[in-house]
Amino acid sequence: MPSFETIIRGGTIATAADTFSCDIGISGGRIVALGHDLGDAGEVIDATGLLVLPGGIDSHVHFAQPSGPGIVMADGFESGTRSAAFGGNTTVLPFCVQQKGQSLREALKAYHAEADGQCYVDVSFHLVIADPTEQVLGQELPALVEDGYTSFKVFMTYEGMALTDMEMLEVMSVARRTGALVMIHAENFDAIRFLVDKLEREGHVEPYYHAISRPIPVEREATHRAISLAEIIDVPIMIVHVSNGEAMEEIRRAQAKGLKVYGETCPQYLVLTEKDLEGLNMEGAKYVCSPPPRDKESQEACWRGLETGVFSVFSSDHCPFRYDDPAGKLNPKGRTSFRWVPNGIPGVGARLPILFSEGVSKGRIDLNRFVALSATNHAKTYGLYPKKGTIAVGSDADIAIWDPERTLTLTHDLMKDGSDYTPYEGIEVKGWPVLTMVRGKTVMRDGELLGEKGFGAYLTREKSPDAAPRR
Ligand code: DUC
Ligand code: ZN
Ligand code: ZN
Fold this sequence. Notes:
471 residues, alpha/beta
């Protein structure tokens, strides 16, 4: 009988703290030994010359989300988690969105039904609170936090989703009492409505005007307000998908004051700009997302945020709609105005190659920071650590093996998602995930899907120390 089910031999291992060379012994889905000369195994994976990293955790993705009349999201849980596996990820955290009038339990029932038996990698849901009734705040949310749904997102914009400041304060109070983490989409709803109406009246309806309708102050103001509300309650918050230096500066200032305010940025804010929305005809619709990509200066600011720790997590905000599809970007109303172009872009498969290549290969961040931003901090902040997010004895054997020298041009074909394009087409990357292992099972190797649909498990989560109030 071999000592281990699997040994990964000869690789360079990196965690968020260390880089070292040793072998990994895996049995029962867990890492059970780290060392040299570990003995024999049912399977030996030779990682000589390769990097052995914690599998990516993408804590911000959208799958199978109802997206308005006639609009269909391009990925359900099968294709979404498949693309995640190809991109070196072993866990994803999609959103379970409450509709107005719906209970959270009803919303969860529908999302679990979508996900059950469909996933290639592990999943866990954040809750989106769109209807914070007395019942939701007083009964459902506290019970669900105890059941392992330990984070929720609130929106400051969007019809049917935006919460008032009063409602934000109420949700934050529940989070403080229960130890959950509030994630915030920070854009000023009224300012966007005003600008969209004005642009349309002036005949500015092309996709490019989506960016013009949501300028930086829209995001900066809401970020400032969200932080102020959280300060009043004294509760930790995560500002998601930060696109520029002015919003980042609000977060940095809060952190310098000792507030537990966390920040997330995404690949679109590092490698795209609002110029991409200009595209000929409707091509710009491929880049419509919120907040929109900005300019070179904003890209540099986002890199600074990643380098200095203002941003602790780097997520894809994968929110996919097909382009050439009447149920996607080119829906009939979308052709008449940017207002109707579905908001979001795919990225779960491209997130890590972009961060590795633009970050590690180009010398902006080191390997340990890459691991922190791509996996470890997600696990810590969302209550999955140390089961997930690191390479240590006792942790799940969630591992991505990377070839740091492999160069490739990003194409949609590589993404293996349900969309019909990638906004990152044509970007040259150096560094590529060649193997993804979830709980000891190889799900992707050398561009081939080896995992079984349904192997991905649902994860209940702990309350994160990051979400604990300061006092
Ligand atoms: N917010 C997201 O988090 N994703 C896509 C669209 C949006 O507004
Ligand atoms: Zn959002
Ligand atoms: Zn999102």
